[in-house]
Amino acid sequence: MTNTSDDPALSVLRYAAGQVEEKLLKLLPKAVDLEQRVIDAMAYALMAGGKRVRPFLVMESAQLFGVGESSAIRVAAAVECAHTYSLIHDDLPCMDDDDMRRGQPSVHKKFDEATAVLAGDALLTLAFEILSDEKTHADARVRCELITYLAKALGVNGMVGGQMFDLLAENQELDKIRITRLQRMKTGALIVFSGEAGAILGKAEVRRRHAIKGYSHDVGLAFQITDDLLDEEGNSEALGKTAGKDAAAGKATLVSLMGVEQARTKAEMLTEQAVTHLEIFGRKAENLRNLAKFIINRAS
Fold first, then answer.
1. Which pLDDT tens digit goes with each residue over 94-141?
2. Among 166, 205, 207, 229, which is most buried by a count of CB atoms within 10 Å?
3. What is the three-state SS of 28-59?
């Protein structure tokens, strides 16, 4: 993987991350009693860093469709709450069992397993609370559509189903079609929602909505392949989580099926394909073009 320190996507990613983190701190509930512990766990997980690719996608896609920043950043924050919930639960001993996340102890190690479960639950429900608020969008139909599509992205035909698939797929031989489906459910579905959210907020016409959805679809799969390559080739310190876990657990990935070089070629092809979907948006989509390149060249 190439060094991304001078990548043009990094500065805009960091700016968006700062905006989202500021909003998240404002949206976290305030405690009046012993519930403070779970709020502390929520804040610990949310403020642990990360690239914030999903909220960045929300904000950039919203910009394509002329959506106001206040609406976009609320949806971006909701997406980050949902994503962070998934990371907390993914790290639990009964799931992928990882003691490190984003370079620090996982929530269940910093606090305890019960608090981690509740923090994840609270973040998931907070995501829907944010989307349902009139401050997110004046049109109730838009808010309902956001809620519906996020629920589908996170449910049995999305992230949750993909996680179940992933757990059951250990030490099984899966073909390329099933591995691709697994990855599109577990990782890709929320990325697709993040891109499509801007189109929903902006009430985009079908052709443009399909374009941003196609971009997000291809970027999502490229993102997961890159994650698998990093798990194969990276180190725990750089990744901020335990490297080499997929191979140790006997997990089927496109890297294990195709080999490192073919998988890297596949990710590059998906990135090129993703960028073609953006032609309809012209120069307004330059940040999204840079993001696609950043995703496959990142080192963590």
1. 999 999 998 899 999 999 999 999 999 999 999 999 999 999 999 999
2. 166
3. CCCCCCCCHHHHHHHHHHHCCCCCCHHHHHHH
